[in-house]
Amino acid sequence: MSKKKKHCRESFVTMTEMVLPNDTNTLNNLMGGRLMHWMDIVSAIAAQRHSNRIVVTASVDNISFSKAIQLGNVVTLNAFVTRAFNSSMEVYIEVTAEDVPSGRKIETNKAFFTFVAVDQMGKPIDVPEIEPETAEEQELYEGALRRRQLRLVLGKRMKPEDANELKSIFKL
Ligand SMILES: CC(C)(COP(=O)(O)OP(=O)(O)OC[C@H]1O[C@@H](n2cnc3c(N)ncnc32)[C@H](O)[C@@H]1OP(=O)(O)O)[C@@H](O)C(=O)NCCC(=O)NCCS
Questions:
Q1: In 25, 107, 117, 120, which residue has its Cα 20 to 30 A from 64's Cα atom?
Q2: Does pTM top 0.85 for this prediction?
Q3: CA 123, CA 54: separation in Å to the nearest integer?
């Protein structure tokens, strides 16, 4: 039986936060751990919307903190599911920071989180597939297979010799 298909927009989530003193480090910038907490929440909601299931965070790809987010900035996190496999879903998150008085907005972070849909016993359970609609969604969808293999190899859940998508990149 073919699996149900859903669009990326059906899982799209926007979360808006304001950086308060309790969110900052001693330089008055947003702490990385607080941002990762917000990213975990927004992406979990996206994965729940896609699967209509309880989800758990399975892995987080690398996150760089190249631009500081300052006290008082308004932080917007957008997230959606880029591709679903059996029980797992890759979620893409984009973060922007806005200095409201000046109207200046900067893109600060991008990341991929992987969630697994589980039943009441915590056992992985199948989720609908993704049907990309836009060019950006198609590109993310195609890249998701490569990223999945990379994270499974790094997590020692896949043998490097079985990662066919990576072989074509590294010409193995
Ligand atoms: C994630 C979890 C449900 C996987 O359970 P498991 O018994 O290892 O299940 P499986 O080996 O059958 O894998 C299930 C799916 O998880 C994916 N997965 C497992 N580990 C992964 C990892 N490190 N990165 C990406 N995907 C992973 C598998 O690829 C598989 O995906 P698929 O069904 O789409 O093919 C289980 O490890 C778990 O409950 N972990 C704790 C989750 C948690 O508490 N998160 C919050 C941490 S604070």
A1: 117
A2: yes
A3: 10
